[in-house]
């Protein structure tokens, strides 16, 4: 797709990737070398097994491919859209030694869509004859854990404080990267397995967990993610300083087109979320969007594809820059002042590792500032149980099997790994489910 | 010093500026099309087969083509139910006359098909009068609706000899007999054509085949209003079979006729294969159906460059060079044995050689899953070279000869 067409789709908040049709999928799958002991599959944190579904597409077993993805990864459709494949499966693709890697994400999306449009049979409902597990947090880790548990005939109840399941993907990833329908389709598979959702159900007081036990739950899985965006003290209290979460969620479900017409936006941060925020602002009609990153351009944590997207959308990247002062009128920021910095030691980006470059002061008039510089666990974690072991940032400490210091409580996903990818959270959720099952089976035999 | 290179050939005493001809098919259907082909550079054209509509009215079935795709690639082969020309004979004769007048240096070959002696005579004379340089006798169309024509004639040795003789008597033009591959051995029937006076053989016409089935409704393709037929199949997929027939004809000591090679030619390399196995002249249709007349440019340029690089001044020097190396498998020297060698620095670790050898050969490849490198167990290697065929890296897997007097080779028990 050429750039103008892609920009147009983004501005209409339509999926910016055009799916592969069958011919294109066949041609692409036929480029695959069908490696022995394929490195792409080994590189998938969620165990989606791309080598197998690509082989299935090549041999015209399209439904089989859809089945493989769904069985291995309950958020297979979601991952096809948002997975950082260039860091994972496609990075390991053997054919890279000769030519471009296989478009694994595109093939995954093709297979998932094929299953949907060709009435792939529903997922098997859980018999729910085994234990009962409470899952706190309906993001990727929680959903994946639930699916694996249901698969083994356990029951799974997800307590979600929001009114929709999906977590980060549903609230924070813009429509042009991940249409809501894609997550809905994935979650429908989980609903068919028999998951129970308790929406608008925050678990945040000390008695909650003991209450769950008294309600007959055998084990608790915490996958509350990192729900609190980090913000700068410098921008505290201004009415036009947003965090990425409030900004992205407002523009995912609220008004979109033209709402930022004529505005100048500054996004602070250099990761995927920052770029999603910047592109969203641009798509909402912003006149100018700055991306202010502490990292140097070549060290941005965002994916290459995302950085290209930012360039394509005309976003001005002020890399290696730090905001040091705010000009205000009342509680409104009218401009940001910053300086260029360089790292003292390369590849370690935090404000304490930088030195200011003399004579690089700049000032940007802004209508809106969006902060996307990271996220941390919510305060509810410490409230769960006084004895639950966390680090000073509230990251839950677990053993290799995702068991916390309280034996019947398991935890995984961002709240444990400190914030990684959706596919990582899915993989951890799956592994935690296995640990929970092992734990419960040992307990009953004793 | 480099010799002067040109692609001109002498085929049955007729001089072609290059050996590349359109074969008798929709690509040579009328004067306007043929003129464009000549302009594009084709050396000759075998005009779409003429017949007398007073004897048999041709109506083309529809749809008339089906593609054979492989691994996402279109038209690896093509099946057709096309018949000979459906245009009135007088229009076609007018076109032939105009073409020869407009392109006197290009070679015009009239393909004809009769149903009885008189038809052949009449068509041969009309063609000669129109200015055709040669005649091609269509003994080989595999889907003629007429019960006594096309490849049914080509399978009947006596009919081939008799019709050829009739034409030779009626016309002074050189005669090419076009043969069907839908026969076990093409040599005996070609000898019949020779006895009838044929000056050359062209082969192959299309192979009777079924290119696919619509699995929704269990209909073989092409689906002609609910029915289908095994009909002529052409394109790259048939080339290896065509090459075999050409070499059979070339290597036949008693035949000794010049050959026009047909069957899946798309590139100058394909053309060269046919030449090396004994073709002097070449004919193309399916590649033109797909890519247009322009492809002849690349055939001419490519073949010329090859000849310059090899210091070959005349195409004749290449004709049949490879055919002479064909022998009966019973004559192979089995003391010559090879084993595979893998260049580890080139190996990209896909493991395809391992999989193929493990499940399809002699379990002679060792795959290191940690380093992702393949190596050969020379004690087990039978030298089939399957590994080098599946390997995606050029020259990563090669072969080396094993001294079977000293070393035990897995293929020799």
- As a whole number of angstroms, the C-alpha radius of gyration of chain B is 24 Å
Query: Which fold name fills CATH's third level, the topology of the largest domain in chain A?
Result: FAD/NAD(P)-binding domain
Class computed from helices, strands and strand pairing of chain B? alpha/beta
Distance between the termini of chain B: 52 Å
The pLDDT mean of chain A sits at: 93
**Sheet having the most strands of chain A:** 5 strands, parallel
CATH class of the largest domain in chain B: Alpha Beta
* Largest interface by Cβ-Cβ < 8 Å: A-B, 16 and 15 residues
Beta-strand portion of chain A reads 15-25%
Main sheet strand line-up of chain A: 3-2-1-4-16
The CATH superfamily of the largest domain in chain B is known as: Aldolase class I
Number of domains of chain A: 3
Low-confidence stretches of chain A: none
* Low-confidence parts of chain B: none
Q: What is the 3D shape of chain A?
A: globular
Describe the fold and architecture.
The complex is a heterodimer of chains A (446) and B (413). Chain A has 18 helices and 16 strands. With 446 residues, chain A is of the alpha/beta class. Chain A folds into three domains: 3-117, Orthogonal Bundle (Fumarate Reductase Iron-sulfur Protein, Chain B, domain 2); 132-227 and 377-445, FAD/NAD(P)-binding domain; 229-375, 3-Layer(bba) Sandwich (FAD/NAD(P)-binding domain). In chain A, the strands form four sheets. Chain A has a five-stranded parallel sheet, sandwiched between helices. In chain A, strands 6-14-7-8-9 form a five-stranded parallel sheet. In chain A, strands 10, 11, 12 and 13 form a four-stranded antiparallel sheet that branches. The radius of gyration of chain A is 23 Å and the shape is globular. Helices cover 30% and strands 22% of the residues of chain B. Chain B is built from twelve helices and 20 strands. Chain B has an eight-stranded parallel beta barrel, surrounded by eight helices. In chain B, β1 (9-11) and β2 form a beta hairpin. The termini of chain B are far apart. The A-B interface holds A 23, 26-27, 29-30, 33-37, 39, 58, 94-95, 97-98 and B 71-73, 348-352, 354-355, 367, 369, 372, 392-393.
